[in-house]
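The records we work with from here on pair a chain with its fold. Taken together, the tokens spell out the fold as the letters spell out the chain. To see the layout at work, look at the sequence and tokens printed below.
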Amino acid sequence: MSPLRPPMNLFRFRVHALKAMLPALAVALALAGCSFVQMGYNQLDRLIAWRLDDYLPMYSAQRAEVEPAVTRLVDWHCATQLPAYSAWLRTVDADMRAGLSVARANVHIDQALGFGHDIARRAAREVGPLMVGATPAQIETFNKRMKKSNRDYVEDWVEPPRDELVRERAKRMKKRSEAWLGKLTPAQLALIDDWARDVRSNGEDGMESRRRWQTALADVLARRNADRGAVISDLETLFVSPGNVFTPGYSAAFDANRARAAEALSALSASLTPTQRKHLQREAASLIADIEQIACRRSEFSLQARS
């Protein structure tokens, strides 16, 4: 498995439901730890606002609320999360090159998942209130688009034969690993093939978990005019802890895949050649430099971060 990206991939495994709710927040911000430099970090607020409007078409007055909310979200992320990403990347790089134990791999995965939880919590606080003010027509449109997202999920994760999913998973991971390490050895290619076969792909459990989460969301929004504070709090819970409503099978698959990922990361680390260690060090240093060159806007968050 790729030494720096798998934890974020594991995070995305857990937030399939979040991707149906707010694709820009769950995808763009989750990807921020891995590829936001290529996306154009300083355009992130525009991307998020645009994708929100794509899922929940907004009126002019609502857009006027969305823009500052998204700006606050991105400013918070830039000032408080990017420094943490740099520190995390340095530690992962050093551990991978020195010899990553399974225990240390789990520490890094925990930290990456924590980044995701922090993003979800902040997103719920900034953007969640906009859902409370949605009209019945907007909620209906939103539900239709979530159903389309469900159909896409079925096409990608439920219908394909297992062998096809394994091949595609291995292919993607080899490509990502080579980007960080350079040319892989035959033993490393076999290690990735073994990992890809071991991943538990509970597509049907995943689909049912999505439905459960969407039902819970619908229940919350159905009482959005009753107790605004309670509704926003419940939205935050759904964002941060979607696993609370997942099926036991889906939760078990996540735990098993996480454990297998830690083992594979440790094995890959032990197999690195001197050339690969140098390649990894260069790639990590380049990404860290890109992160640290991003200039945050002077906001309350950046001022707090510097104080």
Remarks:
- The chain has 15 helices and no strands.
- Confidence is low (pLDDT under 50) at residues 1-36.
